[in-house]
Design goal:
Elements (H helix, E strand, L loop, with lengths): L9 H26 L3 H7 L6 H43 L5 H26 L10 H12 L5 H28 L5 H21 L4 H23 L14 H5 L8
């Protein structure tokens, strides 16, 4: 799909997809109507209606597989963001077992990382963020956690759990960025669009001698196509598009104070 489509609001996305789908359906209806004249009308009318159910089933299966993949990516993306926020919140709580200076430094680093992640969210939504970008503040926080000097058994446990929490945050961040790259590739889109067009052509041929019936049947199937495409396009990019996941969980665990 064209990238600018993902920047549309949900309302405009619905309008664009429905308009495009019905434009194609009308074009096919008009072309088949012009072809279905004289002897060619008998040829088109001889097309068996029995081919429509298999085409419809194949289209439904392809759409189902695409939708399952898109929704699974969206679910995994939401889990990654929630896990990252939870791990950072756990780190903030654990560092409270250490001297105030160390705790304040750790919370400042966590805050700086969250602020940076929120600022980079639009880049990730456009699928332009990669693992090459090192989370400096979070990496510094992990080094700080390993440099802490526990004086009691409780602090030793807290230090170990603090390091684990920061490692979990780093891993969740990596997963978030990797999932942000997922999308339905152009080959799959081409297959879906081609299959939808073939089915519309078959409907037009079956009803070639009955223009009103062809228009009704093609209109109904075009509506089903549009709804299917809207469901997939609106969530094709886990962090982009009108239903993309927002950084709200991270913002909720943002420590107070200055990020610097």
């Amino acid at each position: 799909m064209i990238d600018w489509v993902y920047g549309l609001s949900l309302g405009w996305l619905i309008v664009v997809v429905i308009a495009g789908t019905f434009a194609v359906a009308c074009f096919i209806w008009a072309v088949i109507g012009r072809i279905a004249r004289g002897q060619r009308a008998d040829t088109l009318a001889a097309v068996s209606p029995g081919m429509l159910p298999p085409l419809g089933i194949v289209f439904a299966l392809v759409i189902g597989f695409l939708a399952a993949g898109v929704w699974n990516d969206a679910s995994n993306a939401r889990v990654a963001v929630n896990d990252e926020a939870s791990a950072l919140r756990t780190a903030q709580l654990l560092v409270g077992n250490f001297p105030k200076s160390d705790a304040a430094r750790m919370r400042a680093l966590i805050r700086a990382q969250i602020v940076q992640d929120v600022a980079d969210w639009p880049v990730m939504a456009r699928q332009q963020q990669t693992l090459a970008v090192i989370p400096v503040a979070l990496a510094e926080g992990l080094r700080l956690a390993l440099q802490l000097r526990p004086e009691t058994a409780g602090q030793a446990v807290a230090q170990r759990e603090l390091a684990v929490a920061l490692e979990n945050a780093l891993d969740s961040r990596r997963q978030r960025i990797l999932i942000s790259q997922s999308r339905v590739n152009w080959v799959k889109w081409a297959g879906v669009i081609a299959l939808a067009a073939v089915t519309l052509i078959a409907i037009a041929c079956v009803h070639a001698g009955r223009r009103a019936s062809a228009a009704i049947a093609m209109g109904l199937f075009a509506t089903a196509i549009a709804v299917s495409l809207i469901l997939i396009v609106s969530q094709d990019r886990p962090f982009g598009g009108p239903l993309g996941i927002k950084p709200s969980p991270l913002e909720q665990v943002l420590p107070p104070g200055s990020s610097g």
